[in-house]
Specification:
The structure is a homodimer.
Chain A lengths: L3 E3 L4 E3 L2 E4 L2 H8 L8 E6 L4 E9 L4 E9 L7 E6 L3 H14 L3 E5 L16 H15 L6 E5 L2 H7 L1 H5 L3 E5 L15 E5 L7 H9 L3 E3 L8 H12 L1
Parallel strand pairs in A: 1-4, 7-8, 7-11, 8-9, 10-11, 10-12
Antiparallel strand pairs in A: 2-3, 3-6, 4-5, 5-6
Helix pairs in contact in A: 2-3, 2-7, 4-6
Function (chains A, B): Specifically methylates the N3 position of the uracil ring of uridine 1498 (m3U1498) in 16S rRNA. Acts on the fully assembled 30S ribosomal subunit.
Pfam families (chains A, B): Methyltrans_RNA
Protein name (chains A, B): Ribosomal RNA small subunit methyltransferase E
Protein backbone atom coordinates (compact mmCIF):
# COMPACT_ATOMS: atom_id res chain seq x y z
CA UNK A 1 0.00 0.00 0.00
CA UNK A 2 1.81 3.09 -1.27
CA UNK A 3 -1.22 5.32 -0.82
CA UNK A 4 -3.84 5.07 1.90
CA UNK A 5 -7.21 5.54 0.16
CA UNK A 6 -9.99 7.29 2.05
CA UNK A 7 -13.70 6.70 1.51
CA UNK A 8 -16.28 9.46 1.99
CA UNK A 9 -17.62 7.54 4.99
CA UNK A 10 -14.23 7.79 6.74
CA UNK A 11 -14.55 11.57 7.08
CA UNK A 12 -15.76 12.81 10.47
CA UNK A 13 -14.97 16.43 9.58
CA UNK A 14 -13.71 18.42 6.59
CA UNK A 15 -10.08 17.41 7.33
CA UNK A 16 -10.49 14.53 9.80
CA UNK A 17 -10.93 10.82 9.19
CA UNK A 18 -11.31 7.83 11.49
CA UNK A 19 -10.13 4.39 10.30
CA UNK A 20 -11.11 1.05 11.80
CA UNK A 21 -10.74 -1.60 9.11
CA UNK A 22 -7.88 -3.33 7.20
CA UNK A 23 -6.27 0.08 6.74
CA UNK A 24 -5.92 0.45 10.52
CA UNK A 25 -4.34 -3.01 10.70
CA UNK A 26 -2.01 -2.04 7.86
CA UNK A 27 -0.94 1.16 9.66
CA UNK A 28 -0.24 -0.83 12.81
CA UNK A 29 1.39 -3.94 11.38
CA UNK A 30 3.06 -2.93 8.13
CA UNK A 31 3.80 0.77 8.58
CA UNK A 32 4.31 0.29 12.35
CA UNK A 33 3.00 3.84 12.49
CA UNK A 34 2.86 5.97 15.64
CA UNK A 35 0.96 9.09 16.65
CA UNK A 36 2.47 12.08 14.91
CA UNK A 37 3.61 10.11 11.85
CA UNK A 38 2.73 11.45 8.47
CA UNK A 39 1.76 9.35 5.45
CA UNK A 40 0.47 9.65 1.88
CA UNK A 41 -3.29 9.54 1.43
CA UNK A 42 -5.83 10.10 -1.31
CA UNK A 43 -9.60 10.50 -1.33
CA UNK A 44 -11.31 8.03 -3.67
CA UNK A 45 -12.27 9.98 -6.78
CA UNK A 46 -10.50 13.07 -5.46
CA UNK A 47 -7.14 14.57 -4.60
CA UNK A 48 -4.05 13.16 -2.94
CA UNK A 49 -1.95 14.58 -0.12
CA UNK A 50 -0.75 13.89 3.43
CA UNK A 51 -2.28 12.62 6.63
CA UNK A 52 -0.90 13.13 10.10
CA UNK A 53 -1.84 10.55 12.69
CA UNK A 54 -3.48 12.36 15.60
CA UNK A 55 -4.42 9.28 17.58
CA UNK A 56 -3.59 5.60 17.05
CA UNK A 57 -5.37 3.09 19.25
CA UNK A 58 -5.99 -0.65 19.04
CA UNK A 59 -9.49 -0.15 17.64
CA UNK A 60 -9.23 3.07 15.63
CA UNK A 61 -6.99 5.81 14.27
CA UNK A 62 -7.81 9.48 13.77
CA UNK A 63 -5.95 11.37 11.04
CA UNK A 64 -5.68 15.00 9.99
CA UNK A 65 -5.85 15.24 6.21
CA UNK A 66 -4.41 17.74 3.73
CA UNK A 67 -5.34 17.06 0.10
CA UNK A 68 -3.60 19.29 -2.43
CA UNK A 69 -2.34 17.21 -5.37
CA UNK A 70 -4.21 15.82 -8.36
CA UNK A 71 -4.01 12.08 -9.04
CA UNK A 72 -1.80 10.98 -11.97
CA UNK A 73 -3.20 11.14 -15.49
CA UNK A 74 -5.00 8.09 -16.86
CA UNK A 75 -4.10 6.44 -20.15
CA UNK A 76 -6.24 7.53 -23.15
CA UNK A 77 -7.61 4.00 -23.45
CA UNK A 78 -10.65 1.78 -23.45
CA UNK A 79 -9.54 -1.79 -22.74
CA UNK A 80 -11.69 -4.73 -23.82
CA UNK A 81 -10.73 -7.97 -22.17
CA UNK A 82 -12.18 -11.42 -22.76
CA UNK A 83 -13.21 -12.46 -19.24
CA UNK A 84 -10.20 -14.20 -17.66
CA UNK A 85 -10.45 -17.17 -15.27
CA UNK A 86 -11.46 -15.98 -11.79
CA UNK A 87 -8.04 -16.09 -10.13
CA UNK A 88 -6.48 -14.22 -13.05
CA UNK A 89 -9.40 -11.76 -13.09
CA UNK A 90 -8.51 -10.50 -9.63
CA UNK A 91 -4.88 -9.88 -10.57
CA UNK A 92 -5.82 -8.30 -13.90
CA UNK A 93 -8.18 -5.87 -12.14
CA UNK A 94 -5.32 -4.77 -9.89
CA UNK A 95 -2.96 -4.44 -12.85
CA UNK A 96 -5.48 -2.47 -14.90
CA UNK A 97 -6.07 -0.04 -12.03
CA UNK A 98 -2.37 0.32 -11.23
CA UNK A 99 -1.42 1.02 -14.85
CA UNK A 100 -3.98 3.83 -15.17
CA UNK A 101 -6.61 2.27 -17.43
CA UNK A 102 -9.76 4.42 -17.09
CA UNK A 103 -12.30 2.11 -18.78
CA UNK A 104 -12.41 -1.68 -18.82
CA UNK A 105 -14.99 -3.82 -20.60
CA UNK A 106 -15.09 -7.50 -19.66
CA UNK A 107 -16.40 -9.33 -22.67
CA UNK A 108 -17.51 -12.81 -23.58
CA UNK A 109 -15.65 -14.86 -26.18
CA UNK A 110 -16.00 -18.36 -27.55
CA UNK A 111 -13.03 -19.53 -25.47
CA UNK A 112 -14.24 -18.03 -22.18
CA UNK A 113 -15.49 -20.95 -20.09
CA UNK A 114 -19.14 -20.43 -19.16
CA UNK A 115 -18.37 -21.11 -15.50
CA UNK A 116 -16.15 -18.00 -15.32
CA UNK A 117 -19.28 -15.84 -15.45
CA UNK A 118 -20.49 -17.41 -12.18
CA UNK A 119 -17.54 -16.23 -10.08
CA UNK A 120 -18.28 -14.06 -7.02
CA UNK A 121 -15.18 -12.04 -8.06
CA UNK A 122 -17.46 -10.36 -10.64
CA UNK A 123 -19.71 -8.85 -7.98
CA UNK A 124 -19.38 -5.06 -7.86
CA UNK A 125 -17.91 -5.01 -4.33
CA UNK A 126 -15.33 -7.65 -5.26
CA UNK A 127 -14.32 -5.77 -8.41
CA UNK A 128 -14.06 -2.52 -6.45
CA UNK A 129 -11.88 -4.21 -3.81
CA UNK A 130 -9.34 -5.36 -6.39
CA UNK A 131 -9.34 -2.00 -8.18
CA UNK A 132 -8.61 -0.27 -4.88
CA UNK A 133 -5.62 -2.55 -4.28
CA UNK A 134 -4.29 -1.48 -7.68
CA UNK A 135 -4.84 2.22 -6.96
CA UNK A 136 -3.14 1.88 -3.55
CA UNK A 137 -0.16 0.23 -5.26
CA UNK A 138 0.34 2.88 -7.95
CA UNK A 139 -0.86 5.96 -6.01
CA UNK A 140 -4.03 6.90 -7.84
CA UNK A 141 -7.49 7.79 -6.51
CA UNK A 142 -9.78 7.37 -9.51
CA UNK A 143 -11.50 4.00 -9.91
CA UNK A 144 -11.63 2.67 -13.47
CA UNK A 145 -15.12 2.14 -14.87
CA UNK A 146 -15.76 -1.56 -15.37
CA UNK A 147 -18.50 -2.76 -17.70
CA UNK A 148 -19.57 -6.36 -18.13
CA UNK A 149 -20.77 -7.55 -21.54
CA UNK A 150 -21.84 -11.17 -21.48
CA UNK A 151 -22.90 -11.28 -25.13
CA UNK A 152 -20.14 -10.83 -27.68
CA UNK A 153 -22.14 -10.37 -30.88
CA UNK A 154 -24.69 -7.72 -29.88
CA UNK A 155 -21.99 -5.75 -28.05
CA UNK A 156 -19.55 -5.84 -30.96
CA UNK A 157 -22.23 -5.20 -33.60
CA UNK A 158 -24.25 -2.53 -31.83
CA UNK A 159 -21.89 -0.69 -29.47
CA UNK A 160 -18.23 -1.23 -30.26
CA UNK A 161 -18.00 0.92 -33.41
CA UNK A 162 -19.23 3.88 -31.39
CA UNK A 163 -16.77 3.24 -28.51
CA UNK A 164 -13.99 2.88 -31.07
CA UNK A 165 -14.91 6.03 -33.07
CA UNK A 166 -12.10 8.60 -33.10
CA UNK A 167 -9.61 6.18 -31.49
CA UNK A 168 -6.94 3.85 -32.84
CA UNK A 169 -8.61 0.44 -32.62
CA UNK A 170 -6.37 -2.58 -31.97
CA UNK A 171 -6.80 -6.29 -31.19
CA UNK A 172 -3.89 -8.15 -29.65
CA UNK A 173 -3.76 -11.42 -31.57
CA UNK A 174 -0.89 -13.79 -32.43
CA UNK A 175 -0.27 -14.39 -36.11
CA UNK A 176 0.97 -12.73 -39.28
CA UNK A 177 -0.13 -9.23 -38.31
CA UNK A 178 1.77 -5.95 -37.92
CA UNK A 179 3.66 -5.51 -34.64
CA UNK A 180 1.83 -3.61 -31.94
CA UNK A 181 2.72 0.07 -32.50
CA UNK A 182 4.89 1.97 -30.02
CA UNK A 183 4.32 5.32 -28.30
CA UNK A 184 1.08 6.12 -30.09
CA UNK A 185 -0.47 9.57 -30.17
CA UNK A 186 -4.11 9.94 -29.21
CA UNK A 187 -6.71 7.58 -27.76
CA UNK A 188 -6.76 3.82 -28.25
CA UNK A 189 -9.35 1.07 -28.03
CA UNK A 190 -7.53 -2.21 -27.37
CA UNK A 191 -9.02 -5.70 -27.19
CA UNK A 192 -7.15 -8.63 -25.62
CA UNK A 193 -8.41 -12.17 -26.05
CA UNK A 194 -8.83 -15.13 -23.72
CA UNK A 195 -6.28 -17.89 -23.10
CA UNK A 196 -6.16 -19.67 -26.43
CA UNK A 197 -6.98 -16.42 -28.26
CA UNK A 198 -9.99 -15.07 -30.12
CA UNK A 199 -11.53 -17.36 -32.75
CA UNK A 200 -11.28 -16.14 -36.38
CA UNK A 201 -14.96 -15.10 -36.41
CA UNK A 202 -14.33 -12.85 -33.41
CA UNK A 203 -11.24 -11.24 -34.97
CA UNK A 204 -13.37 -10.56 -38.07
CA UNK A 205 -16.19 -9.00 -36.07
CA UNK A 206 -13.75 -6.86 -34.05
CA UNK A 207 -12.13 -5.72 -37.32
CA UNK A 208 -15.56 -4.76 -38.72
CA UNK A 209 -16.06 -2.55 -35.66
CA UNK A 210 -12.72 -0.85 -36.35
CA UNK A 211 -10.13 -2.89 -34.39
CA UNK A 212 -7.10 -4.01 -36.39
CA UNK A 213 -5.11 -7.10 -35.31
CA UNK A 214 -1.57 -6.53 -34.03
CA UNK A 215 0.88 -9.01 -32.54
CA UNK A 216 3.55 -9.01 -29.84
CA UNK A 217 5.84 -11.76 -31.10
CA UNK A 218 5.65 -15.52 -31.08
CA UNK A 219 5.64 -15.98 -27.30
CA UNK A 220 2.24 -16.67 -25.75
CA UNK A 221 1.88 -14.55 -22.64
CA UNK A 222 -0.53 -14.90 -19.74
CA UNK A 223 -3.37 -12.38 -19.93
CA UNK A 224 -1.96 -10.25 -17.11
CA UNK A 225 1.48 -10.13 -18.74
CA UNK A 226 0.01 -9.39 -22.17
CA UNK A 227 -2.03 -6.47 -20.78
CA UNK A 228 1.05 -4.93 -19.16
CA UNK A 229 3.29 -5.54 -22.17
CA UNK A 230 0.81 -4.05 -24.67
CA UNK A 231 0.15 -0.96 -22.53
CA UNK A 232 3.87 -0.37 -21.88
CA UNK A 233 4.51 -0.50 -25.59
CA UNK A 234 1.56 1.64 -26.67
CA UNK A 235 1.97 4.51 -24.18
CA UNK B 1 0.56 -25.30 -20.76
CA UNK B 2 1.01 -24.30 -24.39
CA UNK B 3 4.04 -26.55 -24.86
CA UNK B 4 4.66 -29.92 -23.23
CA UNK B 5 8.30 -29.88 -22.11
CA UNK B 6 10.24 -33.13 -22.18
CA UNK B 7 13.14 -34.01 -19.90
CA UNK B 8 16.02 -36.23 -21.04
CA UNK B 9 14.83 -38.86 -18.55
CA UNK B 10 11.45 -39.08 -20.33
CA UNK B 11 13.06 -40.55 -23.45
CA UNK B 12 12.84 -44.32 -23.77
CA UNK B 13 14.13 -44.24 -27.36
CA UNK B 14 15.37 -41.67 -29.86
CA UNK B 15 11.80 -40.58 -30.70
CA UNK B 16 9.77 -42.09 -27.86
CA UNK B 17 8.92 -40.73 -24.44
CA UNK B 18 6.90 -42.06 -21.53
CA UNK B 19 5.18 -39.62 -19.16
CA UNK B 20 3.88 -40.39 -15.68
CA UNK B 21 3.82 -37.16 -13.68
CA UNK B 22 1.83 -33.87 -13.66
CA UNK B 23 2.17 -33.76 -17.44
CA UNK B 24 0.22 -37.02 -17.74
CA UNK B 25 -2.48 -35.58 -15.48
CA UNK B 26 -2.52 -32.43 -17.61
CA UNK B 27 -2.94 -34.46 -20.82
CA UNK B 28 -5.82 -36.36 -19.25
CA UNK B 29 -7.64 -33.61 -17.40
CA UNK B 30 -6.94 -30.38 -19.28
CA UNK B 31 -6.25 -31.49 -22.85
CA UNK B 32 -8.67 -34.45 -22.47
CA UNK B 33 -6.30 -36.10 -24.91
CA UNK B 34 -6.88 -39.47 -26.54
CA UNK B 35 -4.64 -41.98 -28.30
CA UNK B 36 -3.74 -40.67 -31.73
CA UNK B 37 -3.95 -37.00 -30.72
CA UNK B 38 -1.08 -34.78 -31.65
CA UNK B 39 0.29 -31.92 -29.49
CA UNK B 40 3.14 -29.43 -29.32
CA UNK B 41 6.24 -30.51 -27.43
CA UNK B 42 9.77 -29.31 -26.82
CA UNK B 43 12.88 -30.90 -25.35
CA UNK B 44 14.35 -28.88 -22.49
CA UNK B 45 17.38 -27.08 -23.86
CA UNK B 46 16.62 -28.37 -27.37
CA UNK B 47 14.18 -28.17 -30.26
CA UNK B 48 10.41 -28.02 -30.44
CA UNK B 49 7.98 -30.01 -32.55
CA UNK B 50 5.05 -32.43 -32.35
CA UNK B 51 4.17 -35.50 -30.34
CA UNK B 52 1.63 -38.12 -31.26
CA UNK B 53 0.05 -40.04 -28.43
CA UNK B 54 0.65 -43.75 -29.05
CA UNK B 55 -0.85 -45.01 -25.83
CA UNK B 56 -2.69 -43.19 -23.03
CA UNK B 57 -3.39 -45.18 -19.86
CA UNK B 58 -4.31 -44.20 -16.31
CA UNK B 59 -0.71 -44.51 -15.12
CA UNK B 60 1.35 -43.53 -18.15
CA UNK B 61 1.38 -42.20 -21.70
CA UNK B 62 3.72 -43.09 -24.54
CA UNK B 63 4.38 -40.49 -27.24
CA UNK B 64 6.12 -40.45 -30.59
CA UNK B 65 8.20 -37.30 -30.91
CA UNK B 66 9.29 -35.23 -33.93
CA UNK B 67 11.50 -32.25 -33.06
CA UNK B 68 12.27 -29.94 -35.98
CA UNK B 69 11.88 -26.30 -34.92
CA UNK B 70 14.23 -24.06 -32.97
CA UNK B 71 12.92 -22.36 -29.82
CA UNK B 72 12.19 -18.61 -30.09
CA UNK B 73 15.05 -16.13 -29.72
CA UNK B 74 15.88 -14.84 -26.25
CA UNK B 75 16.12 -11.14 -25.42
CA UNK B 76 19.67 -9.69 -25.47
CA UNK B 77 19.47 -9.01 -21.75
CA UNK B 78 20.94 -9.63 -18.33
CA UNK B 79 18.29 -8.82 -15.72
CA UNK B 80 19.29 -7.96 -12.15
CA UNK B 81 16.43 -8.12 -9.71
CA UNK B 82 16.45 -7.25 -6.03
CA UNK B 83 15.13 -10.45 -4.45
CA UNK B 84 11.30 -10.12 -4.32
CA UNK B 85 9.16 -11.51 -1.48
CA UNK B 86 8.73 -15.28 -1.86
CA UNK B 87 5.22 -15.30 -3.33
CA UNK B 88 6.19 -12.63 -5.88
CA UNK B 89 9.48 -14.45 -6.60
CA UNK B 90 7.60 -17.45 -7.95
CA UNK B 91 5.49 -15.34 -10.30
CA UNK B 92 8.48 -13.25 -11.40
CA UNK B 93 10.43 -16.40 -12.29
CA UNK B 94 7.56 -17.51 -14.53
CA UNK B 95 7.31 -14.06 -16.10
CA UNK B 96 11.05 -13.83 -16.71
CA UNK B 97 11.10 -17.25 -18.39
CA UNK B 98 7.99 -16.54 -20.46
CA UNK B 99 9.30 -13.18 -21.72
CA UNK B 100 12.56 -14.71 -22.96
CA UNK B 101 15.07 -13.39 -20.42
CA UNK B 102 18.21 -15.55 -20.76
CA UNK B 103 20.08 -14.48 -17.58
CA UNK B 104 18.65 -13.44 -14.22
CA UNK B 105 20.65 -12.34 -11.20
CA UNK B 106 18.78 -12.20 -7.88
CA UNK B 107 20.52 -9.59 -5.80
CA UNK B 108 20.41 -8.30 -2.27
CA UNK B 109 19.42 -4.70 -1.53
CA UNK B 110 18.94 -2.71 1.65
CA UNK B 111 15.16 -2.99 1.32
CA UNK B 112 15.10 -6.76 0.76
CA UNK B 113 13.87 -8.29 4.02
CA UNK B 114 16.47 -10.72 5.38
CA UNK B 115 13.81 -13.42 5.79
CA UNK B 116 13.26 -13.52 2.01
CA UNK B 117 16.63 -15.27 1.64
CA UNK B 118 15.35 -18.18 3.76
CA UNK B 119 12.52 -19.17 1.40
CA UNK B 120 12.48 -22.71 0.02
CA UNK B 121 11.40 -21.10 -3.30
CA UNK B 122 15.09 -20.22 -3.80
CA UNK B 123 16.15 -23.87 -3.90
CA UNK B 124 17.35 -24.89 -7.36
CA UNK B 125 14.53 -27.39 -7.93
CA UNK B 126 11.93 -24.81 -6.92
CA UNK B 127 13.43 -22.17 -9.21
CA UNK B 128 13.58 -24.65 -12.08
CA UNK B 129 9.94 -25.62 -11.52
CA UNK B 130 8.76 -22.03 -11.88
CA UNK B 131 10.96 -21.38 -14.91
CA UNK B 132 9.49 -24.44 -16.61
CA UNK B 133 5.97 -23.14 -16.03
CA UNK B 134 7.03 -19.92 -17.78
CA UNK B 135 8.58 -21.80 -20.71
CA UNK B 136 5.48 -23.99 -21.06
CA UNK B 137 3.35 -20.83 -21.16
CA UNK B 138 5.32 -19.02 -23.85
CA UNK B 139 6.54 -22.04 -25.86
CA UNK B 140 10.28 -21.99 -25.24
CA UNK B 141 12.66 -24.79 -24.26
CA UNK B 142 15.72 -22.99 -22.94
CA UNK B 143 15.92 -22.40 -19.18
CA UNK B 144 17.20 -18.97 -18.14
CA UNK B 145 20.38 -19.02 -16.06
CA UNK B 146 19.61 -17.84 -12.54
CA UNK B 147 22.40 -16.58 -10.27
CA UNK B 148 21.97 -15.66 -6.63
CA UNK B 149 24.08 -12.84 -5.18
CA UNK B 150 23.41 -12.33 -1.51
CA UNK B 151 25.97 -9.54 -1.06
CA UNK B 152 25.25 -6.32 -2.93
CA UNK B 153 28.54 -4.46 -2.51
CA UNK B 154 31.11 -7.09 -3.54
CA UNK B 155 28.93 -8.14 -6.48
CA UNK B 156 28.39 -4.60 -7.73
CA UNK B 157 32.01 -3.54 -7.12
CA UNK B 158 33.79 -6.64 -8.39
CA UNK B 159 31.56 -8.24 -11.01
CA UNK B 160 28.90 -5.92 -12.36
CA UNK B 161 31.11 -3.67 -14.50
CA UNK B 162 32.28 -6.74 -16.40
CA UNK B 163 28.73 -8.08 -16.88
CA UNK B 164 27.65 -4.63 -18.05
CA UNK B 165 30.59 -4.11 -20.46
CA UNK B 166 29.46 -3.67 -24.06
CA UNK B 167 25.80 -3.39 -23.07
CA UNK B 168 23.44 -0.51 -22.40
CA UNK B 169 23.26 -0.43 -18.59
CA UNK B 170 19.98 0.73 -17.02
CA UNK B 171 18.44 0.89 -13.53
CA UNK B 172 14.69 1.24 -13.25
CA UNK B 173 14.20 3.86 -10.54
CA UNK B 174 11.43 6.39 -9.91
CA UNK B 175 12.49 10.04 -9.86
CA UNK B 176 13.72 12.86 -12.05
CA UNK B 177 15.53 10.61 -14.54
CA UNK B 178 15.20 10.14 -18.29
CA UNK B 179 12.31 7.91 -19.44
CA UNK B 180 13.18 4.30 -20.09
CA UNK B 181 14.27 4.14 -23.76
CA UNK B 182 12.15 2.33 -26.35
CA UNK B 183 13.08 -0.30 -28.92
CA UNK B 184 16.82 -0.27 -28.13
CA UNK B 185 19.43 -1.78 -30.41
CA UNK B 186 21.92 -4.19 -28.91
CA UNK B 187 22.30 -5.87 -25.52
CA UNK B 188 21.04 -4.43 -22.23
CA UNK B 189 21.86 -4.91 -18.55
CA UNK B 190 18.80 -3.86 -16.55
CA UNK B 191 18.46 -3.65 -12.77
CA UNK B 192 15.06 -3.47 -11.05
CA UNK B 193 14.83 -2.62 -7.36
CA UNK B 194 12.82 -4.04 -4.47
CA UNK B 195 9.43 -2.77 -3.25
CA UNK B 196 10.25 0.68 -1.94
CA UNK B 197 13.07 1.04 -4.45
CA UNK B 198 16.85 1.08 -4.26
CA UNK B 199 18.39 3.37 -1.65
CA UNK B 200 20.46 6.31 -3.01
CA UNK B 201 23.75 4.56 -2.14
CA UNK B 202 22.72 1.58 -4.27
CA UNK B 203 21.71 3.75 -7.23
CA UNK B 204 25.14 5.41 -6.96
CA UNK B 205 27.01 2.10 -6.85
CA UNK B 206 25.00 0.74 -9.80
CA UNK B 207 25.79 3.93 -11.75
CA UNK B 208 29.51 3.50 -10.99
CA UNK B 209 29.30 0.03 -12.52
CA UNK B 210 27.71 1.49 -15.67
CA UNK B 211 23.94 1.39 -15.05
CA UNK B 212 22.10 4.69 -15.64
CA UNK B 213 18.80 5.39 -13.85
CA UNK B 214 15.66 5.55 -15.99
CA UNK B 215 12.04 5.93 -14.93
CA UNK B 216 8.67 4.63 -16.11
CA UNK B 217 6.39 7.42 -14.88
CA UNK B 218 5.00 8.36 -11.51
CA UNK B 219 2.98 5.20 -10.92
CA UNK B 220 4.60 2.65 -8.60
CA UNK B 221 4.22 -0.80 -10.11
CA UNK B 222 4.54 -4.21 -8.49
CA UNK B 223 7.84 -5.88 -9.33
CA UNK B 224 6.26 -8.35 -11.73
CA UNK B 225 4.42 -5.58 -13.58
CA UNK B 226 7.54 -3.37 -13.68
CA UNK B 227 9.61 -6.21 -15.18
CA UNK B 228 7.06 -6.80 -17.93
CA UNK B 229 6.55 -3.09 -18.63
CA UNK B 230 10.28 -2.33 -18.86
CA UNK B 231 11.00 -5.32 -21.13
CA UNK B 232 8.04 -4.54 -23.42
CA UNK B 233 9.29 -0.99 -23.79
CA UNK B 234 12.97 -1.84 -24.29
CA UNK B 235 12.59 -4.63 -26.87
Amino acid sequence: MNLLLLEDADFVGADRVVLRDRRLTHLQQVHRAESGDSLRVGRIGGQMGKAQILRLEASEAELHITLDQPPPAKLPLTLLLALPRPKMLRRVLQTVASMGVPRLILLNSYRVEKSFWQTPFLEPAAIRGQLILGLEQSRDTVLPEVRIEKRFKPFVEDQLAQICAGTQGLVGHPGQYPSCPRAVEGPVTLAIGPEGGWIPYEVEKLAEAGLQPVQLGERILRVETAVTALLARLF
